[in-house]
Amino acid sequence: MNIQTLLNQRIQAAMVAAGAPETAPALTRQSAKVQFGDYQANGIMGVAKGLKMNPREFAQRVLDKLDLSDIAEKVEIAGPGFINVFLKNTWLGKELVELRTSDHLDVLEVSNPETVVVDYSSPNLAKEMHVGHLRSTVIGDAVVRTLEFLGHNVIRQNHVGDWGTQFGMLLAYMERLRAENAEISMVLSDLETFYRAAKTCFDDDPEFAVRARELVVALQSGDEDCLKLWDEFIDISLAHCEETYKMLGVSLERKHVMPESAYNDDLQNVINELTEQELLQESNGAQCVFMEEFANKEGEITPVIVQKTGGGFLYSTTDLAAVRFRQHTLEANRVLYFVDARQSLHFQQIFTLSRKAGFVKPETQLEHMPFGTVMGSDGKPFKTRSGTVAKLSDLLAEAQERAYQLVASKNPDMEEEELRNIGRVVGIASVKYADLSKNRTSDYVFNWDTMLSFEGNTAPYLLYAYSRVASIVKRSEIDVTSLTGDIAVVEAQERALAMKLCQFEEAIQQVANDGMPHFLCAYLYDLAGTFMSFYEACPILNAEDEVKNSRLQLALNTASTLKQGLELLGIETLERM
Ligand code: ARG
Fold first, then answer.
1. Would you list the DSSP string of 119-169?
2. In sequence order, what are the beta bridge partners of 282?
3. CA pair distance 210, 213, nearest whole angstrom
4. Which of 65, 87, 109 is the last residue of a domain?
5. Does 168 sit in the ligand 1 pocket, CB within 6 Å?
6. C or N terminus of the chain, fewer CB within 10 Å?
7. pLDDT for position 103
8. For residue 339, how far is its CA from the centre of ligand 1 (angstroms)?
9. What would the pLDDT profile of 101-119 be if each residue is shown by its tens digit?
10. Ligand 1 pocket check for 118: Cβ under 6 Å
11. Burial of residue 541, with CB atoms counted within 10 A of its CB: 0-12 exposed, 13-18 middle, 19 or more buried
12. Closest Cα to residue 373, out of 450, 444, 446, 447?
């Protein structure tokens, strides 16, 4: 259930009944302070101004039309015309029983599901995935899971870079190895080394460079042998990605790959359409679109180049074709792009041009969801100790090892197998959570000690909190599936916990709207803390029957909300650690 939506609708209806225009927003939010109640509507003042009325007077008229007696204890006017709502404990208790018994944590599936295309991960296949791909992959996947949980129709698009001049060099190197009878798949098992070796040949050996250029031309003109070689390379590179996705617990599969090359045959059509619409202009032999929106103060416009001198197409051309495909074939209502903030201008241009060219319907939303860079403690983009870009697979292996050492030192008696499993879950969770819990628009510093800490808004803290709640429920030795009876919200800590539990849907709605999983992380961290205060103040297992039964249900609700929330973030939980 979504209290905010519920109250907002009711207050809005009362506002309209009191004379406000249909579109007047009630602006109902969770209150910032307890004295303002649980929720506060801030929309009255703006509307009263429009009606040329005294805001407090208008607020009183709204209250006269507003009946919240079924859910609220008290509704009051405060300050210049805020409406403060204090919810009833009995109502919260009932909602929590609903939450416990529904199989979807009482989150209603949206009544108007949208088709949301999500472009995420999308690495270039010439190299192995590195730390720079972590954010797009992990944040995109959390948003995808959340949208699906809310009932939207989500289409994953892994827009991998599998085309371009660097493939000539890689194919030339494959060809050379083949001539030397080397075991290609062995050499390709480390793509990073392979790329560097190919690059060295390209830079140092002019004959090799010539061959590399020939192969680019052959590839682009559809030469069969060349395409076979390329296919083989792409297949191995994708397999590397898939290993990383599996390790990370990311839901991307082969069927979600929609590579750049898939649009090759459509690129000329894009150019033709832009020509027909008289949007193209030649500049130094290249085909460009100049849009006034992208002029600087001096009036100079940064153009979108869609075709190079000589006829080659670009990253932009492919993205225009992708927009058309997503609109016309996938029938998207919303397209989300989880891509580095440094590509902001590119996406603003693609979106503006797509609208001008009619590639998308006016009501379709195109949203770039930018994110900052993963930094090292030196304030520069994160690198390995040897100074190279950190390979994602190595990083994840290190995370698991570090987490294992940490857990092993805390649990000397635990079996090796279980320790390894906990190490895996905690290690991966720590890396993902460190990324997810920060506002994605800012850079963040990659730091092993903070991400593996058991204190603060971290994965180990939350996983440990979950396992504690789960163990309380388990120790009760009550078959929780048969738990019935009321949930009594009496003590202040019970109320705080009840309130938090009822706000789960609001948190995930924010993730879905803004593509920002850190809202859910902050919510789960708060929930865990609120539970701990409740547990300190309100004994569960030693309480007498009815109270015990009620508090146990609160604990059970906490456990399932934490578990579900972490699952939406793509994080596995542990029953003990
Ligand atoms: N492959 C690109 C890169 O690594 C990201 C692609 C993002 N998606 C898109 N539709 N352009 O920078």
1. E----BTTS--BGGGHHHHHHHHHHHHHHHHTT-EEEEEB--B--STHHHH
2. 287
3. 5
4. 87
5. no
6. N
7. 83
8. 7
9. 888 999 988 989 999 999 9
10. no
11. middle
12. 444
CB 132 within 8 Å of CB 374: yes
CATH code of the domain containing 54: 3.30.1360.70
* Within a domain: 329: no
Interval between CA 134 and ligand 1 midpoint (Å)? 13
CA of residue 160 to ligand 1 center, whole Å: 7
**Higher-confidence residue: 1 or 321?**
321
Cα separation, 147 vs 570, in Å, equals 13
User: What is the spatial distance between Cα 207 and Cα 166, in angstroms, rounded to a whole number?
Assistant: 16
Closest ligand 1 atom, CA of 347?
A: 11
Number of domains in the chain: 2
- Cα(348) to centroid(ligand 1), Å: 14
Q: 523 C-alpha to center of ligand 1: Å?
A: 31
505 lines ligand 1 (CB under 6 A): no
Q: How far is residue 74's CA from residue 34's CA, in Å, rounded to a whole number?
A: 13
> Could you tell me if residue 159 is left (phi over 0), alpha (psi between -120 and 50 degrees) or otherwise beta?
beta
Are the beta carbons of 174 and 184 closer than 8 angstroms? yes
Hey, what are 226's tokens? 């060349």
The residue whose CA is least distant from atom 11 of ligand 1 is 319
Contact 117, 365 (CB under 8 A): no
Ligand 1 mutation target, pool 122, 241, 261, 350, most atoms within 8 A of CB: 122
Ligand 1, atom 8: closest residue by C-alpha = 159
Residue 221 placed within a domain? yes
Q: How far apart are CA 561 and CA 555, in angstroms?
A: 10
What pLDDT is recorded for position 452? 96
Residue 43 lies in a domain: yes
Q: How far is CA 338 from CA 117, 189, 247, 372, in A?
A: 11, 28, 20, 11
Cβ–Cβ < 8 Å for 125, 242 = no
Predicted-assembly ipTM surpassing the 0.90 threshold: yes
* Token pair in block for residue 465: 């909190």
Domain holding 200, by residue range, is: 164-251
Which of 1, 32, 27 lies closest to 15 in space, CA to CA? 27
Amino acid residing at 133: H
Q: What is the DSSP string of 79-93?
A: TTTEEEEEE-HHHHH
47 inside domain = yes
Q: Assign residue 366 a region: left if phi > 0, alpha if psi is -120 to 50, beta otherwise? A: beta
Q: How confident is the model at residue 311 (pLDDT cuts 50, 70, 90)?
A: confident
Nearest to residue 354, comparing CAs of 331, 329, 326? 326
Q: Please say if the pLDDT value at position 410 is more than 80.
A: yes
pLDDT over threshold 90, residue 478: no
Q: How far is CA 347 from CA 64, 119, 235, 315, in A?
A: 49, 12, 28, 11
Residue (of 526, 536, 403, 505) closest to 462 by Cα position? 526
pLDDT reported for residue 298: 93
Query: Which residue, of 233, 251, 269, is where some domain finishes?
Result: 251
123 lines ligand 1 (CB under 6 A): yes
User: If you average pLDDT over every residue of the chain, what do you get?
Assistant: 95
463, 573 in Cβ contact below 8 A?
A: yes
Of the candidates 155, 153, 121, which has an alpha carbon nearest to the alpha carbon of residue 255?
155
CA–CA separation, 83 and 88 (whole Å): 16
